[in-house]
Amino acid sequence: MDEVNKAPKMVGADVPERGRIYYLVDDQYDFIPLAKEFFDWNAATNRAPATLKAYCSRLLWYYRFLWQRNLHILDATPADLTEFVIWLCNPYRESAAVSPIHQASPLTASSVNLILQVVGAFYRFLVRRGMISESPVRYVDVPRGKWLTERDLLAHTRQGRTVVQRMELKLKEPSRLPPIVSEQDFQTFIASIHMGQDPNGDPSGFRDRLLCLMLNEGGFRIGEILGLRMEDLEFGKQGVHVRFRPDNENGARAKAGYGRDRFVHLPSEILGLLDIYLTEVWIEASPTTSHLWIILNKRAKDRDGGSTYGAALNVSAVEQMFRYYSEKSGIKLHPHVLRHTHATALVRSYLRDGEAVDWKFIQERLGHASVVTTMQTYTHLTNEDRKWAYDRYQERRSERAAQRTGR
């Protein structure tokens, strides 16, 4: 057997009442025990399916490193973690002998840091379970900055100089703008989605087009929009409710969690298309679910050969749909890019009008847990954005000067 094929792998398993959970297995396809406990614990604490999948894929990097070094998870040292970071930054990491080289890594600094965060969380789990006495992932105390204090609702109760723990081993991440799509490119992408003369002439195309428009105009996460059900729609209030549900049949889940549902207003044009979709497309499919987004391909089958026509649409189907239209239109687009595009457009709308950005409104519309998250993500303005803001400032300044001289 090829050596690479003996390395740990990631597999999905359908668990009753929990849906699909991803695990790590060895070359005999046996579960890796400690990792399985960690994933089961995260599933039991209602982590979102997408989060569990991300945790598994990130922890796989570490297990492949340990396998290559013939090192057990409980025997790793802080020095091994340093070697792990070097290994991650090496494009030839899969070779048996890995040495530091001076060329770009295929993993970004943020990707490496996300992997390290999951490894750190895994070791904290093992410490709590009494498997090890101390984690090899080292942390240092740093003063709690103002932005961290804002995240801490109990900050006012703490005495003295508060500190937080941060990983000692962490790569510096360059500042970068969140990815967005221009209006012209978005229209090119939308134009590639075929739609017949009437909605039922191409029901899947009508659905796909509307789904893209709602993502672009509502700033939804993919799990949020796929979790929408009929009872979440409120045409009278001109919007939809985003509600957390742990039991959606398609595995979709709002990230916010219990008690943090929100209402998202939508433009009248989108609501008009949504009304047509419901009355002419959705109802005609005789859906087997109350989910808004359903499978409209009459030939669609599940793994057992049963028809899935009218069943709830899942994340993988939407991602496949975006890949198809990206190739067809020549505009590479991902659902989350439309969320960034919507948020950026909101920020720019304030700047163009010369107004202070209402970060609280944008935070609540996007469903961020903290306004700080919103500000950290979307305050990276381009030179053009700064010019808009400055030009508007100069206009207001000139207007005030003219008013003073006219008195």
SSE series = EEHHHHEHEHHHEEEHHHHHH
User: Which strand order spans the largest sheet, edge to edge or round the barrel?
Assistant: 5-6-7
Total tally of structural domains: 3
**pLDDT < 50 runs, ≥5 residues:** 97-103, 146-158
| Helix fraction bin | 40-55%
Radius of gyration: 25 Å
Mean pLDDT: 84
The shape is: globular
CATH architecture of the largest domain: Orthogonal Bundle
Instruction: Characterize the biggest β-sheet.
Output: 3 strands, antiparallel
CATH class of the largest domain: Mainly Alpha
- Percent of residues in β-strands: 5-15%
Total beta-strand segments: 7
CATH superfamily of the largest domain: Tyrosine recombinase, N-terminal domain
Secondary structure tally, helices: 14
Question: What is the straight-line distance between the termini?
Answer: 89 Å
CATH names the topology of the largest domain as DNA polymerase, domain 1
Report on this structure.
The chain is mainly alpha-helical. It folds into 3 domains: 3-167, DNA polymerase, domain 1 (Orthogonal Bundle); 183-336, Intergrase catalytic core (hpI Integrase, Chain A, Orthogonal Bundle), CATH 1.10.443; 340-405, no CATH class. The chain has 14 helices and 7 strands. The strands form 3 sheets. It has a 3-stranded antiparallel β-sheet with strand order 5-6-7, with no helix packed on it. Strand 5 and strand 6 (239-242) form a beta hairpin. Helix 2 (49-69) packs across helix 4. The longest helix has 23 residues, at 383-405. Residues 97-103 and 146-158 have low confidence and may be disordered.
